[in-house]
Design goal:
Elements (H helix, E strand, L loop, with lengths): L1 H21 L3 E7 L5 E5 L2 E2 L7 E7 L3 E8 L7 E7 L8 E9 L7 E10 L11 E4 L9 E2 L2 E2 L5 E10 L2 E8 L2 E8 L5 E10 L5 E2 L18 H12 L4 H14 L4 H10 L3 H10 L20 H13 L1
Parallel strand pairs: 1-7, 4-9
Antiparallel strand pairs: 1-4, 2-3, 2-5, 5-6, 7-8, 10-12, 11-16, 12-15, 13-14
Amino acid sequence: MKQRFTLTAFVLLLSTLSFGQIQPFGHLTIFSEDGDKFYLILNGERINDVAQTNLRVEELVQPYYNAKIIFEDNTRNEISKNYLQVTDVDGLFMDVTYKIKRDKNNNKKMKLNFFSMIPVVQGFVPPSNVYVTRWGQPAPPQQVIIQQSAPVGVVQQTTTTTSTIGGVNAGVSVGGVGVNISINDPVFSGSTTVTETTTVTTGGTIVGHQEPAPVGCYGARPMNNGNFSSALQTIKNQGFDESRLKTAKQIAQNNCLNTNQIVEICKIFGFEETKLDFAKFAYDACVEPQNYFNVNNVFSFSSSADELNDFISRR
């Protein structure tokens, strides 16, 4: 009986891996350089119901998509782009980023430009300012805050409930191809309810107050060694410091790093000002900002370390 169970499990695993070999996917990130909020439509499907400034769509299975971007500010022109690419020249799926910017000569005219491209990295943690969704899956339910009126001086409770559909997620890699398997199961479903108490101060109306979510990667898990080595090699493959800096920032924007990893990336750059630029940018991606003083060791001049320390102290 045990042998039969083992054989069955082995066959299922082989089936999963075979599926992964023929179902690779890529990721797409679009952000607005000037903070203009937008809606994204891919192949006629609306991706986000709430306008965003930084949007990431994961697990795209087609090499090209027809994209339309509609702005919350309807005075700005829409952007239409056919054959928006999420693969490299060899047809391999990548993690691609595009940037929206305003035209210098016409403030209403908007442009969508290629920004960067890196290999798909498994298990990264996106920054808190990025809205993440998966292709073909509905957007998560919106959070609802209940507001009620009450007499002045009366203490009232406001309840905020966020419901999520649970499931099991598994990631495997076969021959360099990443596969993410999601299984939704009511057994894993659940909801989180947060109840807060506030005191009426004006007008006899109580408005529920919710503390903002933590910003950055403080206390999170950094990139594992395998993924970081791959990311480091991708940066090294770039020919110039400017290209290396753009790639490094893309990695820091989409992942959490410890101070040692940030130091290793800084060492790749040939110029002092590039090291300082990245060290400032990567501060929000650091899981241990209390140890950020270790990054000072990469600088050749004490003035660079002083400038970084001043930057951190202003944060």
